[in-house]
Design goal:
With 350 residues, the chain is mainly alpha-helical. The protein has one domain. The protein has 12 helices and no strands. The protein is globular.
Length: 350
């Protein structure tokens, strides 16, 4: 096979690998969401203890992260002072624990399909909080798009057959805390040159979450668990559920590392539609035409937002390349002038 054929084989292999990473992430994300719903829903496994479930995940994930970093040395730990940890990681850990607690609690009250529709508000929350904390600049065009996403989600909520106010408040709270966490990661970590991948994130953040969740757990769920004498810890159910949660973090590491964050956003849209279809066809959740119309409208807004982000990234990259080429050209010109000056000095000396 010729040189061109070998290049084609390499490109095909790269494309196939990218699709494999996307498929693994979608499968694991899909599995964790459905599995959590199965455990927490009163009509299924009937174990409505979201704080305890989140604590099991955090304990398992932090233990494995320590083993991967300290024993197997798969990734290097980030150099971080105690002051940086307290000021930057602890607030992020607090927000993450609240986000996980509320989002897992929502599965008790809402259908999987409706939760995915409410999650479409994430770009709205991230942009709004970014503007409030002066991380994003206010643009009327972007805000109009955010309002269209919100309008679409509002229509989906209006068309929800089994609307539960408390469940919606829990999910909206989870979205708000998660959006704040994402913005604070940029302000408290990325701006300081600290970049955490999913494994190092678990290494630093998961123990934090465990501590923060312990206090509400003592007062909210521990007394009920003590009274529930019929409950026995199922190592198969909670073990496999925790393995899936940790594997999802590894899949994020692979997907973002081998492709891009934008690929993950697009894959997330595919996953949401698959979950809605699964929720309707297998779990038998009611999905109304108004649900689909509202979510379709929100989906278009999210797709346009991602398109604008991609265009902005392309423009930034192009500007960087132009700047680099200008610097290289200026460097060459300076070298030429220095050479000419040196040649003239040599002539003068002769």
């Amino acid at each position: 096979m010729g040189k061109g054929g070998a290049l084609s084989d390499g490109v095909i292999k790269k494309i196939l690998l990218s699709y494999t990473y996307v498929a693994i992430w979608i499968f694991l994300s899909f599995t964790v969401i459905v599995y959590n719903k199965y455990i927490l829903d009163k009509k299924m496994y009937n174990w409505p203890f979201p704080i305890t479930l989140t604590m099991i995940h955090m304990a398992f994930c932090s233990s494995l992260a320590v083993i991967l970093i300290k024993v197997f040395k798969i990734v290097e730990p980030v150099s971080m002072s105690r002051e940086t940890y307290i000021r930057s990681v602890v607030p992020i850990g607090a927000l993450y624990s609240l986000s996980l607690w509320l989002s897992n609690s929502a599965y008790i009250y809402l259908s999987v399909s409706f939760i995915q529709m409410l999650k479409a508000l994430m770009p709205v929350a991230v942009y709004s909080i970014g503007v409030l904390l002066k991380k994003e600049s206010f643009k009327s065009e972007t805000m109009t798009n955010m309002l269209s996403i919100s309008f679409g989600v509002a229509i989906a909520a209006y068309g929800e057959a089994k609307f539960d106010t408390w469940g919606v408040m829990l999910q909206l709270g989870a979205v708000a805390f998660e959006a704040t966490r994402l913005v604070l990661i940029q302000i408290l970590l990325t701006s300081k040159g600290i970049n955490l991948n999913p494994i190092t994130s678990l290494y630093y953040v998961a123990p934090c979450c465990l501590v923060f969740l312990f206090f509400p757990w003592i007062f909210v769920e521990l007394p009920i668990l003590k009274e529930s004498s019929s409950f026995h810890f199922d190592f198969v159910i909670f073990g496999t559920n925790s393995v899936c949660a940790f594997a999802l973090n590894l899949a994020v590491f692979l997907l973002v590392g081998k492709t891009s964050a934008l690929t993950m956003n697009v894959a997330g849209v595919v996953k949401d539609w698959l979950l809605i279809a699964f929720s309707w066809s297998v779990i038998k959740d009611t999905v109304t035409p108004l649900n689909l119309f509202g979510y379709g409208l929100a989906f278009l807004g999210v797709a346009y937002y991602n398109h604008c982000k991609l265009q902005a990234l392309k423009a930034k990259d192009a500007q960087k390349k132009v700047q680099q080429s200008d610097e290289e050209a200026a460097g060459k010109l300076l070298e030429e002038r220095e050479s000419e000056a040196a040649a003239k000095r040599d002539e003068t000396e002769d």
